[in-house]
Amino acid sequence: MDDVAVPSLDDPGTDPFDVAARAARVIAERTGVEHHDLALVLGSGWGEAADRIGEVVAEIPSHEIPGFSAPAVAGHGATTRSIRLAGSDRHALVLGSRTHLYEGKGVRRVVHGVRTAAATGARTLVLTNGCGGLNPDWAPGTAVLIQDHLNLTATSPLEGATFVDMTDLYSQRLRDLAHTVDPTLPEGVYAQFRGPQYETPAEVRMAGVLGADLVGMSTTLEAIAARHVGLDVLGVSLVTNAAAGISPEPLSHEEVIEAGRTAAPRISALLAEIVGRI
């Protein structure tokens, strides 16, 4: 690890890409892996996938890597792992300790993992989440490929006059590849709200009018940052509950965790097979 102090992401004078580069160097030193080929962010319900995609080479408490902190939400991993993909000499970086915008730590921290992944050499990013579904045909436990998104957070990870095309943000090539594993996978538009409160029924109806099929509190800012640094993005949502107003049942975080736990073996096997073909 560098002997000099790492600049804080909270300091507006800090270059966040410099912190990401330092983080990548620490990961290389701690794992012995100089280059990672792809990265995964495993949201609620997706954690078991890391155990299925290959051999864990090294595991690092995320807060020991520059710019990262321990997770604030139950159900999210607290470690970053380097995994040698099954049957190959390629490596995946599984990013633990996802930071959400509602934690109040700033958008730089939300996307720091993505920028660090790019700095380790990754060219592909798999983003997963647990979310609310607007389509009543998608029961809890349904995996949905993200086709596009609505960023309803009123912020962006891009700073200054940084103009980036978002036309094919969620790679058609990667979605086609996912369909070779499971042709029945539905696709939908994901809308991110700031949170941490769940969406009201009126907000869900608004999102539906705007074209959303899924609502949640993560993913879009990370995807934007990923496109900026040239990563190909595959987004996959797990419907953990019907969004507010779609079902008469009240929403709870415990419901989200339980739905993820129930679906974990099936969706983790699915994701592992998709990753194996990337």
How is this structure best described in words?
- Helix content is 30%, strand content 23%.
- With 278 residues, the chain is α/β, with parallel strands linked by helices.
- It has one domain: Rossmann fold (3-Layer(aba) Sandwich), CATH 3.40.50.
- Helix 1 packs across helix 2 (107-119), helix 2 packs across helix 5 (220-228) and helix 3 crosses helix 6 (253-277).
What is this structure, in a nutshell?
This protein is of the alpha/beta class and 278 residues long.
Q: Identify the strand order in the major beta sheet.
A: 5-8-7-6-9
- Could you tell me the radius of gyration in angstroms? 18 Å
Identify the overall geometry: globular
Unreliable runs = none
The secondary structure category is: alpha/beta
- Let me know the average pLDDT: 92
Distance between the first and last residues' Cα: 31 Å
Number of domain units: 1
State the helix count. 6
Specify the CATH architecture. Answer: 3-Layer(aba) Sandwich
Roughly what fraction of the amino acids lie in strands? 15-25%
At the fourth level of CATH, the homologous superfamily is: Nucleoside phosphorylase domain
